[in-house]
Amino acid sequence: MSAFDVIIVGGGHAGAEAAAASARLGVATALVTHKAATIGEMSCNPAIGGLGKGHLVREIDALDGIMGRIADRGGIQFRVLNRRKGPAVRGPRAQQDRKLYREAMQAELSATPDLTIVEGEVDDLVVRDGRVEGVILLDGRRIDSKAVVLTTGTFLRGLIHRGEETIPAGRAGEKPVLGLSLRLEALGLRLGRLKTGTPARLDANSIDFSILTRQEGDPHPEPFSALTGAITNPQVACFETRTTPEAHRIITDNLSRSALYSGRIQSRGPRYCPSIEDKVVRFADKDTHLVFLEPEGLDDSTIYPNGVSSSLPEDVQLAFLQAMPGLGDVVIKRAGYAIEYDHVDPRELSPTLMLRALPGLYLAGQINGTTGYEEAAGQGLIAGANAALAVLGRAPLILSRTNSYLGVMIDDLIARGVTEPYRMFTSRAEFRLHLRVDNADQRLTELGIACGLVGEERAAHHRRRMEGLASARHLLQSLTTTPSQARKAGVNVNADGVRRSAFDLMSYPTTGRGDLESVWPEISALDSGVYDQLAIDAQYAVYLDRQQADIDAVKRDESRAIPDWLDYALLPGLSNEMKQKLIAARPQTVAQAQRIEGVTPAALTLILAVIRRGR
Ligand code: FAD
Q: Domain tRNA uridine 5-carboxymethylaminomethyl modification enzyme C-terminal subdomain spans what residues (predicted)?
């Protein structure tokens, strides 16, 4: 086959975003995947976003990625989680019509210039002079390229478990990938095994929704993407049910038949997203767990029961489900299962997601030990963009913990590695007051424009928005008043004689727009989106000022590279345990070394002294 600049292997969430990013940069890109018809398939729950994950989607969108726009087209119930808490921890989430999402993703990629979709399985890599320069397909075809991005998901030596059954598979009904794992091992990469699971799918016609609590979406659906005008799909309700003591008894009585508890599964699963058998054992004092019944589509009678993933045999899954309210006569369309798969130790990667030991080969998604569509898509964007930037000979796109959740995720992965599937939480971001869903564009779009990753439509939209914000901020900062006038308008400021601007007054959470308009009528002319954004910016400006010194310190440490010649084994004054940890993690910057568990300030001082002294 003809050669390409960049080859993306796998059409899941990481692969789709990687392919779109690479092609957006204008390099000839091939997306090689088993079946074009499964591009954009959601292997598990039909939803995009949520706490922490919604941040990733907004950041992907800010870099002109596609997940947000596609989720706006597939969304059938939009909710902003944590709406009552502060803007920093809100999480936009949208229930998806699985088919609409997949179709929109396939249409988007088919219409992307510079992108060719190739059906087939990649079985091996072309490695020449220590660089990856293409792929070999199972049917013998060879495709050359200057860079390859692997996004193989749960397919590497995938093994499905359900009760006593084990089936080699990449996901239900799809064969596993064997050749690539052998190649990655032969290249000396450290591989590990992880597991994840999915619940049974239920037939909506067999559920008694009349006795269950409805959960509606937000009355005014908020799109993920800055480029989406309005959500046009009809919106649906989800429903709540619960596990019961009887369901727990059935599960406990059958634990010996569970793949997890019979010892057949050895690898770690996600702690925060446990199977129902795990929950029943680990939280034995609880006799009920909440379960959301989520529709999988507008014209699909399949229901996804969120919260009861299981690797118990199908008859036990049916029995415990039927012991739950509304599910007395439930019919299972497809039983749940657990899956074990290979992943590569992400500490082998650089911040561009290229393998340090193998130039030209990038990894993104579940293969790096993460779980979740959004985590996969975010890595795909960074890996695809960097593969293309390397081909173009341009500077890489490297994000920082100080500017994005994407930066936090990549830094966590490459500095600390994983012991269980990694997913994003707002608690992972130390600067979360600054890294909000509402300001993802302010933090990232300029970076994307600078490296050519952001297309003309979004760049123009961004410029208009930034100009609107700048002129409104200028106005609000130029309007000033005395404390007594402010108090008359209802803003309870200290009577300290200091004049404050309208922008300063907006930092008080109780200040209403009407209060300000009563003092300065010209504020009523401001666009409501612009005003609301500046109100949040004003409230958080105080915290940002306080955090600035910490942000600067992290940036400084991130820019202090640890040279390859530094040999921890030869450093006097480091304990053997510390040496082992540093050798295993191979931190690339002082900031990463600092985050390795157990690395003390004294050890860092020693490392810094050696770097300063030179070889
Ligand atoms: P995938 O979406 O798995 O896509 C991989 C793609 O690569 C597929 O299209 C495949 O056909 C293709 N491919 C693989 N190997 C090759 C090859 N050699 N040649 C060509 N094509 C190839 N996430 C959660 O957040 N919560 C959950 O509860 C959850 N449960 C899950 C349960 C199950 C059973 C599974 C399978 C996944 C679950 N996930 C869950 C994970 C979520 O589906 C993944 O994190 C996400 O889809 C990973 O995206 P990805 O792009 O890395 O891989």
A: 538-609
